[in-house]
């Protein structure tokens, strides 16, 4: 006959394992979203997007648009995506979340490249594709933020 102590170990062991796994995700998510590295990258992304906005509202002369886009948007955003790809979360849950961010950023970069093609060729088809790609990137980013909020809530992580 199995004694009560052994029986209680078998009953509690799965719950202990679940709690340990949950803490791993919680710790990983907390260090991911509240890290200086991700916060600095997010700030860099906002600054680059602000530069792109200058093109869309006409602050940049049309003759200077291609060079401005390449120098102030595409080059720094390519670096941003590369930096983003170096982040390696420890858990699969946070890694999957981070992959959504990379997908959104890569799609946005593709939209910037298509915008550059539009400026070079002035083709309306290219601009439509560029706009659609940038809209898709925004949608992917929204999905990332929703998933981040859900994961943070599920694991009691406060996003600063």
TrEMBL record:
Residues 1-19 form the signal peptide. It comes from the Bacteria. Keywords: Signal. This is Lipoprotein. It comes from Shouchella lehensis G1.
């Amino acid at each position: 006959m199995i004694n009560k102590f052994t029986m209680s170990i078998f009953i509690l062991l799965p719950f202990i394992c679940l709690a340990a796994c949950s803490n791993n995700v919680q710790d990983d998510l907390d260090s991911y979203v509240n890290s200086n590295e991700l916060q600095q990258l997010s700030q860099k992304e906002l600054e680059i997007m602000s530069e792109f906005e200058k093109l869309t509202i006409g602050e940049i002369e049309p003759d200077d648009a291609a060079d401005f886009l390449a120098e102030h948007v595409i080059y720094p955003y390519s670096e941003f995506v590369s930096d983003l790809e170096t982040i390696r979360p420890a858990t699969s849950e946070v890694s999957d979340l981070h992959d959504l961010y990379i997908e959104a950023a890569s799609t946005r970069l593709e939209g910037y490249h298509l915008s550059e093609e539009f400026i070079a060729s002035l083709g309306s088809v290219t601009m439509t594709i560029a706009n659609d790609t940038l809209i898709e990137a925004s949608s992917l980013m929204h999905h990332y933020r929703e998933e981040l909020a859900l994961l943070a809530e599920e694991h009691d992580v406060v996003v600063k």
